[in-house]
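[Discussion] Sanity-checking designs against the backbone

I'm trying to build intuition for which residues belong where. Below is a C-alpha cell string of 229 positions. I'd appreciate it if someone posts a full sequence so I can compare it with mine line by line.
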C-alpha cells in the first residue's frame, strides 16, 4: 500500500512540476511518518523513500535507532529548547526554527557534536493565532541573528498555512512565502545556500504548493493513511 501510494504521489509531483515548467529534481518529498511505527519507515525505505518528517521528539528518539541507516529525518513539529539536543543529534534538518532562543540551543549542541545543522525558519504566513512561526515582518531580523550562529545553516523558509477547505485557498499563502523568500534572498540573507528551500504543501494541497515554487513538500496521510491519534 505504501509503495503504491508513494508511486502515486511521485506521479502527481512530476505532473505538477511539468504543469508549472519546473524541474522535478528540485522538489523533495518529505514523508511525514508521525504517529506511525518505525516499521512504516522501513517499508517506505524499501519502496525507495528515504526522507521522513517527524513532529515529536520522543518519536524521533524511538524510531531513529531502528530505522535504516540511510533514512533522514526532518523535524517539522514545535520544538522546545530543552529538547534541542536530541533534534541536533538525530535530525538532518529542523524546519521549525521560529525564535532565536531555539536557534541558540540547537547551535550550542551542534558545537558540542561538531556538526553543522541545516535549519529552515518557520513563518506564520497567514498571521494565524493558532499557528507557530515568526511573523513575516520579523523574519529578516530573525534570520540575521541565526546567520550569526556558527553551526547552523539557514537554508530557507517553511510554513503551514491556515486551515482551508480547498487547496486553491492555500495558493495565496504559498505565493506570499515565495515572494518573502525572494525578497530575503535579494537581501543576501541566504548567502550560504546555493538555492534556498521553500517547504510548503501537505497531502491536500502539495500540487498547488509546487505550482507556487515549493522545493520541499511534506506529505503524511496521502502516503501512510489516516493517523490514529
Ligand atoms: C502532519 C504534518 C504534515 C502532513 O500532513 P498530511 O495532511 O497528513 O499530509 C505536514 N507538515 C506538518 C508540519 C505536519 O505537522
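Best answer:
Here's mine. Compare freely.
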Amino acid at each position: 500500500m505504501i509503495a503504491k501510494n508513494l508511486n502515486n504521489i511521485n506521479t502527481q509531483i512530476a505532473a505538477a512540476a511539468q504543469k508549472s515548467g519546473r524541474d522535478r529534481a528540485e522538489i523533495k518529498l518529505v514523508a511525514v511518518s508521525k504517529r506511525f511505527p518505525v516499521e512504516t519507515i522501513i517499508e517506505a525505505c524499501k519502496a525507495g523513500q528515504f526522507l521522513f518528517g517527524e513532529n515529536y521528539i520522543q518519536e524521533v528518539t524511538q524510531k531513529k535507532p531502528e530505522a535504516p541507516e540511510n533514512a533522514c529525518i526532518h523535524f517539522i513539529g514545535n520544538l522546545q529548547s530543552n529538547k534541542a539536543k536530541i533534534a541536533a543529534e538525530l535530525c538532518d534538518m529542523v524546519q521549525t526554527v521560529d525564535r532565536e532562543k531555539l536557534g541558540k540551543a540547537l547551535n550550542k549542541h551542534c558545537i558540542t557534536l561538531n556538526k553543522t545543522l541545516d535549519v529552515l525558519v518557520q513563518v506564520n504566513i497567514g498571521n494565524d493565532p493558532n499557528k507557530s512561526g515568526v511573523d513575516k515582518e520579523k523574519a529578516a531580523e530573525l534570520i540575521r541573528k541565526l546567520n550569526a550562529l556558527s553551526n547552523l545553516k539557514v537554508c530557507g523558509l517553511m510554513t503551514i498555512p491556515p486551515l482551508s477547505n480547498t487547496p486553491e485557498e492555500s495558493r495565496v499563502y504559498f505565493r506570499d512565502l515565495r515572494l518573502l523568500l525572494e525578497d530575503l534572498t535579494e537581501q543576501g540573507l541566504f548567502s550560504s545556500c546555493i538555492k534556498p528551500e521553500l517547504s510548503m504543501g501537505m497531502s491536500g494541497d502539495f500540487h498547488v504548493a509546487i505550482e507556487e515554487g515549493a522545493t520541499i513538500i511534506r506529505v503524511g496521510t496521502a502516503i501512510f493513511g489516516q493517523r490514529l491519534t
